[in-house]
C-alpha cells in the first residue's frame, strides 16, 4: 500500500518480499553504525514480520522509500513503537550511495504528514548518536526540539533525544 507520494519519492508499506532490500540497509555496518550495529538476516526476518503486523494492527511502521523515476529502493523511513518516553519514534535509514540528496528530509516530512492526517499520534520522539550530524540536521529541519538524554533500547545506550508536537 502506498502511504505517501512526494516530488521524487514513493513511500509504501513493507511486505515479505522486501527482506533482501532491507538487508542492504539494516545489514550494512556503515549505515547502522549509529543505530546499534547491523542486523543478521535471521534478526531482520523477525523485524520484518513484526513491522508488517505493527502496520496492520496500529496503522504505522517503517516504510520502503522508492525513487519514483528509477523505481529503486533507497531506504526506510517511518515509525517505531513508543520507547520508555511514551512517544512513537521517527526513524530513517538510507543506503549510503543515496546520502546527501535530501531524501531523508523529504521522506520524513511525508511521514509526518501521514501521521497527522491519519491521527496516528500528536507527539513524535527521535534519538540520535551525538556523532550523527546528518541525523540531527534532519530532525532540526523537521522542527524537532532537543529535550535531553534518555536510554534508547535500539542502540542500548543513553542518547540525546528530540521531540516534535504535530
Ligand atoms: C542520517 C541520514 C538518514 C541522512 O540522510 P540524507 O538523505 O543524507 O539527509 P538529507 O540529505 O535530507 O540531509 C539533511 C541535512 O543534513 C546534512 N547532512 C547529511 N549528512 C550529513 C553528515 N554526515 N554530516 C553533516 N551534515 C549532513 C545535509 O547536508 C542536509 O543539510 P542542508 O539541508 O543544510 O544541506 C543518512 O545519512 C543515513 O541513512 N545514515 C545512516 C542511518 C542513520 O544514521 N539513521 C539515523 C539513525 S538516528
CATH superfamily: Gcn5-related N-acetyltransferase (GNAT)
Please provide the count of β strands.
8
Average pLDDT reading: 96
Number of domains: 1
Rg over C-alpha atoms, rounded to the nearest angstrom:
15 Å
- Give the ligands present: coenzyme A
Largest sheet: 8 strands, mixed
Beta-strand content: 25-35%
SSE-based structural type: alpha+beta
At CATH's second level, what is the architecture?
Answer: 3-Layer(aba) Sandwich
Order of helices and strands: EEHHEEEHEHEE
The span between the termini is 23 Å
Helicity range:
25-40%
Q: List the total number of helices.
A: 4
CATH class: Alpha Beta
Strand order of the largest sheet: 1-2-3-4-5-6-8-7
Low-confidence stretches: none
CATH fold-level label:
Aminopeptidase
What is the global morphology? globular
Amino acid at each position: 500500500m502506498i502511504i505517501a507520494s512526494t516530488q521524487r519519492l514513493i513511500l509504501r508499506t513493507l511486505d515479505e518480499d522486501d527482506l533482501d532490500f532491507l538487508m542492504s540497509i539494516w545489514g550494512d555496518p556503515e549505515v547502522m553504525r549509529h543505530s546499534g550495529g547491523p542486523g543478521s538476516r535471521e534478526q531482520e526476518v523477525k523485524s520484518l514480520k513484526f513491522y508488517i503486523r505493527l502496520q496492520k494492527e496500529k496503522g504505522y511502521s517503517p516504510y520502503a522509500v522508492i525513487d519514483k523515476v528509477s523505481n529503486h529502493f533507497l531506504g526506510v523511513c517511518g515509525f517505531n513503537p513508543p520507547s520508555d518516553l511514551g512517544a512513537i519514534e521517527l526513524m530513517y535509514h538510507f543506503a549510503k550511495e543515496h546520502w546527501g540528496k535530501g531524501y531523508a528530509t523529504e521522506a520524513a516530512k511525508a511521514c509526518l504528514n501521514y501521521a497527522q492526517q491519519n491521527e496516528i499520534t500528536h507527539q513524535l520522539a527521535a534519538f540520535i548518536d551525538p556523532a550523527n550530524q546528518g541525523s540531527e540536521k534532519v530532525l532540526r529541519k523537521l522542527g524537532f526540539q532537543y529535550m535531553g538524554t534518555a536510554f534508547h533500547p535500539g542502540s542500548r545506550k543513553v542518547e540525546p533525544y528530540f521531540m516534535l508536537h504535530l
